[in-house]
Design a protein that fits this description.
The complex is a heterodimer of chains A (113) and B (114).
Chain A (H helix, E strand, L loop, with lengths): L2 E4 L4 E4 L4 E3 L1 E4 L5 E7 L5 E7 L5 E4 L2 E4 L9 E3 L8 E8 L7 E3 L3 E6 L1
Parallel strand pairs in A: 2-12
Antiparallel strand pairs in A: 1-4, 3-9, 5-6, 5-10, 7-8, 8-9, 10-11, 10-12
Chain B lengths: L4 E3 L2 E4 L5 E6 L6 E7 L5 E8 L2 E4 L8 E4 L6 E5 L8 E8 L8 E2 L3 E5 L1
Parallel strand pairs in B: 2-11
Antiparallel strand pairs in B: 1-3, 3-8, 4-5, 4-9, 5-6, 7-8, 9-10, 9-11
Amino acid sequence: GDSVTQMEGPVTLSEEAFLTINCTYTATGYPSLFWYVQYPGEGLQLLLKATKADDKGSNKGFEATYRKETTSFHLEKGSVQVSDSAVYFCALLGNNAGNMLTFGGGTRLMVKP
Amino acid sequence: EAGVTQFPSHSVIEKGQTVTLRCDPISGHDNLYWYRRVMGKEIKFLLHFVKESKQDESGMPNNRFLAERTGGTYSTLKVQPAELEDSGVYFCASSQDWSRVGYTFGSGTRLTVV
């Protein structure tokens, strides 16, 4: 079945540092890929998405590129802020799995001033 | 537009008791989903409604969980009787159609069974 693996946290960075959160997936066909973010006390918010190979999703300075050859969708940001502290979830929507999202385990990011 | 609303936001109950979680989707969204995250692990699918019908309930863990969506509007998820391993965060989400661009989640209900 479909699966998503993302790096375990917590990831602790200083403000303005470069961020990478790795995400790899296993799925048949051509899934859509997502990054969701959960800020403290809030729900899951869609951060960015990519629906086909080589697409780059971007939002709020975050980027991720859909790499089919490496089955990856790593999240990056050039300069993190304290306000980016949250839990980040990589997810996929498979072609053969109805409309069900498959999530990774989540990565907690803590950014220190 | 109003987002997906869930309540309560937190619930603490004793093992063996019953708890009912409620989700109000975005108005006009036919698709409603329940997910949960237990023990800080990955978020897992529970079930999917299309209007009032259960489209997919393959993720429901056992028969202690009962989901309903009468009238195709809000949904409830009842856990009866609750067990310790049911503790976690229960998320609801809704979408207008079967587009492959993700859907809108609520803030979740944190359930603690003691």
